[in-house]
Amino acid sequence: MMYRTRFAPSPTGYLHLGHAFSALTAYELARAAGGEFILRIEDIDHTRSRPQYETAIYEDLAWLGLSWQTPVLRQSNHLPDYQAALERLKDLGLLYADHRTRKGEAEAALSAPQSEDNHETAPANPAWRLSLEAARKYLGSRYDHLTFTDHGQTQKADPSINGDVILGRKDIGVAYHLAVVIDDARQGISHIIRGRDLSDATHTQVLLQALLDLPAPEYSHHALLLDSEGRRLAKRKGSKSLRDYRNEGLSAADIKAMITTAPKG
Ligand code: GLU
């Protein structure tokens, strides 16, 4: 199998140094192995994705010196595939409907009467959750022997870490865990290089790979870049973006040097 890595950002904000670290690591490992680096746009959440952020992803990564195959897979162009997988899991009796309204949504609806015409107060369509109990019955003893490799070490996969996750979202149809395993398989990703913040997600994704008969890639979850106060960088916390640095006159080499010396945890 070809050594193939990917960087799979969601266009919900500008990329920061942590994204640059992930993308560069995946890119350099692929190059060193004589393999391929894939860029994928994870834009299933149309409520949060914005075209200007997608454009910025291409610009910022090219500025860093990365190149990738085109056309780039944009998840919003493949929604029927994720829906088909959801139906397959439903047909196997592995999903159950959840009609509850999320706490945050209920509160938002109460405090924002102008959002009355949103679906938040009384969703007509349910969310679909993966039943771990049904998954365990379906896989039999395989369920208790699910493993994955992280940095070459075999780890036991424990999907109960995340519980009965939502795979069918009532607002946008499908959820990240389902779309990501389908595309990692579709694109023949052999090595998933991503931040430690997604280590827990791997336990669920390994189960989904088993349920959907998908190949199991190898994982390397890397440490996260921290700011000067020791906090993780995050788009929503307003961490400085790559384009902020660029606008201040920094070069791609400066960014790489900052990544090398930045505190990580
Ligand atoms: N799209 C996800 C994000 O931006 C990353 C998915 C992944 O690397 O598995 O957080």
Main traits of this protein?
265 residues; alpha/beta; Rossmann fold; binds glutamic acid
Could you explain how this protein is built, in words?
The structure is a single chain. The chain is of the alpha/beta class and 265 residues long. The chain has helices spanning 17-32, 51-64, 79-91, 103-111, 132-139, 176-186, 199-211, 242-247, 252-261, and strands at residues 4-7, 36-41, 73-74, 95-98, 127-130, 147-150, 153-156, 166-168, 191-195, 218-222. The strands form four sheets. A three-stranded parallel β-sheet has the order 1-2-3. Helix 1 links the parallel strand 1 (4-7) and strand 2 (36-41). The relative contact order is 0.18. It binds glutamic acid. Residues 8-10, 42, 180, 194, 198 line the site of glutamic acid (GLU).
Strand order of the largest sheet: 1-2-3
CATH topology, what is it called? Answer: Rossmann fold
Number of helices: 9
On the 0-100 scale, what is the average pLDDT?
92
CATH class: Alpha Beta
Number-wise, the strands total: 10
